[in-house]
Request: fold
Amino acid sequence: MAKYNQNNCNDIFINATQNIMHEQKEGRGLLFVVSGPSGVGKGTLREKLFKYFKDLTYSVSVTTRAPRKDEKEGEDYYFVSKSVFEQMIKEDNFVEWAIVHDEYKGTPRQLLLKRLRMGLDVILEIDVQGAAQVKNKMPEGIFIFIAPPSWKDLEYRLRNRKTEKKEALEKRLTDAKTEIQCVDNYDYLVINDDINIALKQLESIVIAERCKINVKNLNRKEYIKHD
Ligand code: 5GP
Reply:
């Protein structure tokens, strides 16, 4: 057995990190990971953000949840059966996946990596379990947590939305309590009290991240033109 010392420990760590990062290293797009409790307004904020940044792309998740009235296949989610989802897990088709409010949800790997390699900035809207997995594999991601101004406010919004039956709604409220505790693992916190202010904050985060000189996987100085 190899003897432990600080040097080989560092090597092992670096090798492991490089392996995990291998696919992503080629990428140039920015990866924005957005989480927050159900009902906090992530969907509305995302829609508005996409109107402002036409070049942002959204990673459509795969789920076993039944579609809601106005949801469209391939736009809101890819809706699949449990057996299909489990087959996709076996085939390692997800960057991350989790059981969220009793249903499978996951981010398809191929399309995400392809977009990042093409230089496209991508937004994932995923729960805290999924975000933790992404942070392990792609620590260069930008992690944003959207929180409600108060617990009461979240409950009011969820009840008013009327998309869930009583039991499912209670589950979402309980899950929200756990999710809010994960805020420390994120880079940014946006409190969605006034939607226009929250949107401005999100836009500012995107702009600031795009202006960084040393984005972890890209030195933007490469783009400075020389006469
Ligand atoms: P909903 O069922 O209301 O569409 O989504 C519920 C929660 O599932 C949201 O808070 C959302 O962040 C999360 N979610 C959606 N897609 C994914 C995914 O691909 N992976 C994970 N881990 N969570 C997701």
Summary: Residues 35, 38, 61, 65, 96, 98, 100-101, 105-107, 125-127, 129-130 surround guanosine-5'-monophosphate (CB under 6 Å). The CA atoms of residues 41 and 192 lie 7 Å apart.
